[in-house]
Amino acid sequence: MNTTMLFNLSYGLYIISSMDGERPTGCTANSLMQVTAEPNTVVLSMNHDNHTNECIRKTGKFGVVVLAEDTPPSYIGGFGFRSGKDSDKFDGLEYDMKSGVPIINEGVGYLVFKVIDSFETSTHTIFLGELVDAEEIKGGTPMTYSYYHKVIKGKTPKNAPTYVAEEEVKKEEKDVWVCTVCGYVYDGDEPFEKLPESYKCPVCMQPKSVFKKK
Ligand SMILES: Cc1cc2nc3c(=O)[nH]c(=O)nc-3n(C[C@H](O)[C@H](O)[C@H](O)COP(=O)(O)O)c2cc1C
User: Fold this and answer.
1) Does some domain include residue 160?
2) What is the CATH number of the domain that holds 200?
3) How far is the CA of 16 from the centre of ligand 1 (A)?
4) 3-class DSSP state for residue 29?
5) How far away, in angstroms, is 99 Cα from ligand 1 center?
6) I want to staple 18 with a disulfide (CB 3.0 to 4.6 A). Which of 44, 55, 70, 98 is the partner?
7) Is 63 in the same domain as 129?
8) Range 52-76 average pLDDT
9) In-domain check, residue 198
C-alpha cells in the first residue's frame, strides 16, 4: 500500500475556537470539511488529547477562522504547538465574541457551528457541526494545508490527523537548521549562523537558540 497517496488530499487551514469557562481557547486544525448544504454541515476531527476537544464537548459549539495566505504564521504556531491546558493562547490577540465563541481579528472570515452529533475514532473525535453564523473578517486568499507546507515550510504536530512521521518522508540529505519546537526549516538566503540573536522562528516565535542543525 502506498500511503503517500494521502498527500494528494487537499485541506484548508483554520483556527478552531471555543470557550474554557470564561476563558477563550482553541487550536490550529486542517481536518474540516463541509458534508451537506441543507443544512450547512461540516465535520471536524479533533484529537482526544487536545484541550479544545474537551471545550467543544462541554460548550456544544465551535468557531472556525479561515486563515489567509498572508495571515502571520505565528497564529498557526501559537495555536498549534502549545496547549490551552497550560497557556492562554488569546493573550495579546484582538478578538470578538461571535455567537458565543471567540473569533480572532485575522484571516479571511469566520464560521460558527453548533455540535449536532459526534463519534469516536481511536484517537480523534469527529464533531458534526451545523452552521449558525458566518461573516467575512479581512477577506483574501484562503491558506491551504499545502501552502503551509510548501511555501511557509511549516510542520504538523502528532495530534493532527494528517501527521506524518519524519522518517516516512523521503528527504534530500543536507545541513539544515530546524526549529526544535515547531519543526520549521529555515530557508532564508542569509546563512543561519549569521542571523542576529534577535531572530525568532516565524511560525512559533521561539528564539534562535531553539534551532538545531540537522
Ligand atoms: C498545521 C496544523 C494542523 C493541525 N490540524 C489538526 C487537526 O486537524 N486536528 C487536531 O486534532 N489537531 C490538529 N493540529 C494539532 C493541534 O493544533 C495541537 O495539538 C494543539 O496544540 C492543540 O491545542 P489545545 O490542547 O489547546 O487544544 C494541527 C496543528 C497544526 C500546526
Assistant:
1) no
2) 2.20.28.10
3) 9
4) strand
5) 23
6) 55
7) yes
8) 96
9) yes
The closest of 35, 89, 85 to 65, measured between CA atoms, is 89
Judged by phi (left if over 0) then psi (alpha if -120 to 50, else beta), residue 51 lies in alpha
What residues does 97 pair with on adjacent strands? 102
Tens digits of residue pLDDT in 28-58: 999 999 999 999 999 999 999 999 999 999 9
Q: How many domains does the chain have?
A: 2
What residue ranges in the chain does DSSP mark as E strands?
14-20, 23-29, 32-37, 40-47, 61-66, 95-98, 101-104, 109-120, 124-136, 177-179, 211-213
Enclosing domain of residue 80:
11-150
**Which amino acid does the sequence have at 97?**
M
76 pocket-lining for ligand 1 (C-beta < 6 Å): yes
Question: Which ligand 1 atom sits closest to the C-alpha of 148?
Answer: 1
Instruction: Report which residue type is found at 32.
Output: L
